[in-house]
Each structure stands twice: as C-alpha cells, then as structure tokens.
Amino acid sequence: MNKYNNFRDWVPEDAERFIQEHATRYHEMSFDELESKAFSLVDAHEQLMDRQSIVLYAGTNVINPKAAKMLSSSIGSRSSLGYP
After folding, report:
1. DSSP 48
2. pLDDT tens for residues 30-78?
3. Residue 2: φ, ψ to 5°
4. Cβ(13)–Cβ(1) under 8 Å?
5. Is 40 within 8 Å of 22 (Cβ atoms)?
6. Radius of gyration of the chain from Cα atoms?
7. What angle do CA 71, 73, 79 make, to 5 degrees?
8. Could you tell me if 7 and 16 are in contact, meaning their C-beta atoms sit under 8 angstroms apart?
9. pLDDT at site 37
10. What is the pTM of this model?
11. DSSP the chain
C-alpha cells in the first residue's frame, strides 16, 4: 500500500489508506492552503464539540470565555517559577 506499511502493519488497512490519502493531499498543499485547512478543521471541531455535542468528559467542557481569553494571552504559555 505504501512504503511504510511494513512498519505500520498494526494499523488497519482502511485507516492506513485514509491516512496516506490525506497525508499525500496535505503534502501537496502550499503553506497558505495548509494553514487555511488547519484553521478550517479546528473551526469544524470546535463547532462539533462546543456547540453540537454534549461531552460527558468534564475535562473537555467549554471553558469560561474570560478564562479562555486570559489563557490565550502570553501568560497562558509562561511557566511559573514560584507561587502564583
């Protein structure tokens, strides 16, 4: 099926075919096309998970918008070197 199949024989054939088709398509895209596709997929995932589904795993619940805004700032990616 592909040159990596002997290393991934644990992956079901249908799944491997799906992965390889998408990998080939993404490899052929320009950076701008790939970036646009990535944002589109994130938007679709957010729509499904945050607006169309009831997620039973509490760790993935929708975060408070004010907390999300704070975490999306640079403070969200900085490590703490002491007491907060």
Report:
1. I
2. 999 999 999 999 999 999 988 898 888 888 877 889 988 988 888 777 7
3. -150, 170
4. yes
5. no
6. 19
7. 70
8. no
9. 95
10. 0.59
11. --TTGGG-TTS-HHHHHHHHHHHHHHHTS-HHHHHHHHHHHHHHHHIIIIIS-----GGGSPPPHHHHHHHHSGGGGPPPSS--
Domain extents for the chain? 5-77
**Which amino acid is residue 35, in one-letter code?**
E
Using CB atoms within 10 Å of the CB of residue 34, give its burial: 0 to 12 exposed, 13 to 18 middle, 19+ buried: middle
CA max distance for the chain: 54
CB 20 within 8 A of CB 1: yes
pLDDT in tens, 11-32: 999 999 999 999 999 999 999 9
Listed in order, strand segments (DSSP E) in the chain are: none
Cα–Cα distance for residue pair 5/20, rounded to 1 Å: 10
